[in-house]
Amino acid sequence: MKPRALALVHYPVLDRRHDVVASAVTNLDLHDLARSAMTFGWSRFYVVTPVEEQQRLAEKIREHWCQGYGAVYNPDRRQALELMEICPDLDEALRRWEDWTGERALPVLTGAAVQNGMSCQQCRDLMQDSPLLLIFGTGWGLAPPLFERGWPTLEPIRGAGTYNHLAVRAAAAIFMDRLSENRI
Amino acid sequence: MKPRALALVHYPVLDRRHDVVASAVTNLDLHDLARSAMTFGWSRFYVVTPVEEQQRLAEKIREHWCQGYGAVYNPDRRQALELMEICPDLDEALRRWEDWTGERALPVLTGAAVQNGMSCQQCRDLMQDSPLLLIFGTGWGLAPPLFERGWPTLEPIRGAGTYNHLAVRAAAAIFMDRLSENRI
Question: Which of the residues A48, A76, B82, B139 could staple to B165 if both were Cys, CB 3.0 to 4.6 A apart?
Fold first, then answer.
């Protein structure tokens, strides 16, 4: 399997009224996604926001845990947050990931409302040949323009009924687990 | 499959120095675990803390989303948080769960350091006959006395390497997914 990365997008995403907005960075999103990525052996975690103040906030969190007091207080957290990079937009994240892998990457979009997405098994097959960049939205999900780029999508996580309001922290953990090689 | 519930324990748990402590309730734990439980069709979510102030905090969060402004603002959140009950200790959670199901429950402990735990497949087999109460610890995990009660344990989530520091929000989501019936 080729290396894998994830991107957490804060713009363009939807808010609860389905307007396109830039969402705020949530501290626990960064920690949880970094720890899940580290657990499942994913190589990079791109935090995407064009808002400079938010970029600084994310950078401050990263620095605290990677170089500051946090690195001494909790070295496990350091290892995870070292996977994190802050990017102004998704194209920059994709560019950096392709630079990192030296290969053409496979960007894949996720969302609770995705129709006709591929299964995790189909995605795992593609991951044999291309480094995956799995893309998650914050707020009420990735905005429509991202779905017009011709990138493949992943079938949403279906539970027992019609309720499909998982936290992005939970959805990302489940997808990373489902897309792992040593899946039982 | 019989009904399933989860418990999130704030005492007795370990802190980073492996002392037994009561941890503080984290707002996002309640939301994330409730939303995951709702997604996967679990019936109850017991928040366990003996600290009265913390019980009041958890109750306040529940009320805000179930009866207050939050119930109107975000009805999806309401549905999820209605699964939540606050208990002073794990025995009370188990008692309430047995009252709810009218059957003898199957308490199962989780933890990143569990040795010789059963697989999710083995657990799913037991879940055909008994209502599961899946127990998660906050902080640095459930304290040793809980592991001396003779309850079965679940094999930790293994990723790509030795790193095993998933957030409880992520671990709970992955286990609920792995223990679901319509697992792919």
Answer: A76
Q: Is the dihedral of CA B174, B178, B181, B184 positive or negative?
A: positive
In this structure, what are the phi and psi dihedrals at residue A85, rounded to the nearest 5 degrees? -130, 145
| Tens-place pLDDT, residues B86-133 | 999 999 999 999 999 999 999 999 999 999 999 999 999 999 999 999
Residue pair A125/A16 in contact (Cβ under 8 Å)? The answer is: no
Phi, psi for residue B13 in degrees, rounded to 5? -130, 165
AA identity, residue B147: F
A74·B39 Cβ contact <8 A: no
Q: Please determine, for the modelled complex, whether the ipTM score is greater than 0.90.
A: yes
CB-count burial class (<10 Å; 0-12, 13-18, 19+) for A166: buried
Residues B115, B9, B19, B171, Cα dihedral to 10°: 50
Strand A20-21 relative to strand A13-14: parallel, antiparallel, unpaired? antiparallel
Question: What is the pTM assigned to this prediction?
Answer: 0.96
**Residues making up chain B, counted from first to last:** 184
Task: For residue B144, count other CB atoms closer than 10 A to its CB.
Answer: 11
Distance CA A62, CA A96 (A): 18
CATH superfamily, domain A4-178, is SPOUT methyltransferase, trefoil knot domain (3.40.1280.10)
Task: Show which residues on chain A lie within 8 Å of chain B, measured between beta carbons.
Answer: 16, 28, 31-32, 35-36, 38-41, 74, 76-77, 79-80, 119-121, 157-161, 163-167, 169-174, 177-178, 180-182, 184
For residue range A12-66, list pLDDT tens digits in order. Answer: 999 999 999 999 999 999 999 999 999 999 999 999 999 999 999 999 999 999 9
